[in-house]
């Protein structure tokens, strides 16, 4: 971009920013002015998009806008997804001379529904990344080998390729609650990863590619390394059985006639993960969702 282009480039509108951030899975907030009374900088329907680093469009400027940005960023930092309603007396709370009243709806979007960490960029790992691309998930793709990631990976939204020569260090950097799949090219590396993942104890789920005999060997060694039976029981191996940890190890898992092509394994594994992610995200009981009805009655 030339210096002249910088001066003529127009700021990104709120709707363009919203589309880009949702496509790329970046946490953000949408602030919408829903009511106004008296003298106010903007009218109902004005919107702005807020991220941890930037602001797109405006609700009119001044202290009231700064307070809206701060409220949105506090919720982004705390990971408080959902809707909240902020009321501003411009002459009181915001100290602005126009003296009107404004209500702003702040909608916080976490960016990605969950984080999927895949260790291994072989055939199954590649098919998993392709199949997961349309989902609202953040995907962290690890491999210890040099120049293993395909060129198309750089243009895939919400995908981060992470060369990981030290598996233990890569595990330590995973976000808590990540769903992890271990399918590297090397059994020793698989064992190192499993040891580190079980030691953390805060993953959303852990899946290991391989047969029941592979898991029996791994389980024995991991148990000898000090991991509890409760922790080991949560590991899925073989992956892609879609029946939970217990069924993953019974006689029906991966029967001799099942399709073991990389695409079929990846497809079954992703179906299994969809159920696990939905289960983790399900609200407890019949909890109230959205804005409290009393807030809306007072507002309208």
From TrEMBL:
Residues 116-244 form the XdhC Rossmann domain. GO terms for molecular function: oxidoreductase activity, acting on the CH-OH group of donors, NAD or NADP as acceptor. InterPro entries: D-isomer_DH_CS1, MoCofactor_Util/Proc, NAD(P)-bd_dom_sf, Xanthine_DH_XdhC, XdhC_CoxI, XdhC_Rossmann_dom. Residues 22-82 form the XdhC- CoxI domain. Coiled coil: none annotated. It holds the Pfam family XdhC_C. This is Xanthine dehydrogenase accessory protein XdhC. It comes from Halomonas urumqiensis. The lineage of its organism: Bacteria, Pseudomonadati, Pseudomonadota, Gammaproteobacteria, Oceanospirillales.
């Amino acid at each position: 971009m030339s210096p002249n282009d910088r001066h003529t480039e127009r700021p990104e509108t709120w709707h363009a920013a919203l589309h880009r951030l949702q496509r790329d899975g970046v946490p953000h907030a949408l602030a919408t002015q829903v009511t106004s009374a008296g003298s106010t900088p903007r009218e109902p329907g004005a919107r702005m998009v807020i991220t941890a680093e930037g602001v797109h469009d405006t609700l009119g400027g001044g202290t009231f806008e700064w307070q809206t940005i701060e409220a949105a960023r506090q919720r982004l930092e705390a990971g408080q997804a959902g809707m909240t309603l902020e009321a501003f007396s411009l002459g009181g709370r915001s100290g602005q001379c126009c003296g009107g009243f404004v209500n702003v709806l702040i909608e916080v979007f976490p960016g990605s529904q969950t984080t999927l960490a895949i260790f291994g960029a072989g055939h199954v790992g590649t098919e998993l990344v392709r199949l997961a691309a349309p989902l609202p998930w953040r995907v962290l793709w690890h491999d210890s080998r040099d120049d293993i990631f395909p060129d198309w990976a750089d243009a895939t939204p919400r995908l981060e390729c992470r060369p990981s020569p030290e598996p233990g260090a890569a595990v330590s950097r995973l976000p808590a609650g990540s769903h992890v799949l271990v399918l590297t090219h090397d059994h020793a590396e698989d064992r190192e990863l499993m040891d580190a993942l079980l030691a953390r104890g805060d993953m959303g789920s852990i899946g290991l590619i391989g047969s029941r005999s592979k898991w029996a060997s791994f389980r024995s060694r991991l148990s000898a390394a000090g991991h509890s039976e409760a922790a080991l029981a949560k590991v899925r191996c073989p992956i892609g059985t879609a029946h939970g940890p217990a069924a993953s190890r019974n006689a029906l898992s991966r029967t001799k006639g099942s399709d073991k092509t990389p695409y079929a394994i990846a497809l079954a594994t992703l179906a299994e993960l969809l159920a696990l992610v939905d289960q983790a995200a399900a609200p407890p009981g019949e909890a109230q969702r959205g804005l409290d009805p009393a807030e809306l009655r007072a507002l309208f």
